[in-house]
Amino acid sequence: MTLGKFLAVPFLLLLPVIAFAHNFVIGKPVTPVMISEKGELILKDGDFTWKKWNTAEFAGKVRVIQYIAGRKSAKKKNSLLINAVKDANFPEDRFQPTTIVNTDDAIPGSGFFVRGKIEKNKKNYPWAQFIVDSDGLARKAWQLKEESSTIVVLDNLGRVRWAKDGALTPDEVTHVITLIHQLIAAENP
Q1: Which residues contact 66 (CB under 8 A, 6 or more apart)?
Q2: Is 106 helix (H, G, I), strand (E, B) or coil?
Q3: Do 160 and 22 contact (CB within 8 A), yes or no?
Q4: Which sign does the torsion angle of CA 24, 28, 33, 39 carry?
Q5: How confident is the model at residue 169 (pLDDT cuts 50, 70, 90)?
Q6: pTM of the prediction?
Q7: Interatomic CA distance for residues 143 and 145, integer angstroms
Q8: Measured CA angle at 67 (ends 126, 137), to 5 deg
Q9: Engineered SS bond to 167: which of 15, 77, 93, 183, CB 3.0-4.6 Å?
């Protein structure tokens, strides 16, 4: 075996790991995750509480999920999409943005500030869903990169319709907004 062939074999074995940054399958639900510590942030009568959360709650509405590391750099990666979702003014009874923040993947000592920002966002967008994944359970279950931002679009049955780990291009943002409009329209013919 030549040296080139010898080096090519390990590279080819790593190719599936390099090519896929997540395990989402179009048309299937996400791998189930249950978050018991922290979980979903609830705002009721001006007070914040936490409740256990799991992916079974995805069904019922069209969703765009942003799974992000608890880092400012990760938040910035898909701010273009988040702003486009805000501007689209989707109907709250059929659409819900879901932000899951991995505080296990945050700069040490910044957890307090990250949670404060999540609480501020919940006050500003009370109909949006905010979840704290303090152990990085979803990142592990969904095989996501550290220090990143992942976007997943789900239909109202909780099935993956589109996914990408990393920053979206302007064309991908347009595609996601168009897809959400189509999924909401298909829900009510």
Answers
A1: 78, 81, 82, 97, 98, 99, 100, 149, 150, 151
A2: strand
A3: no
A4: positive
A5: very high
A6: 0.83
A7: 7
A8: 110
A9: 77
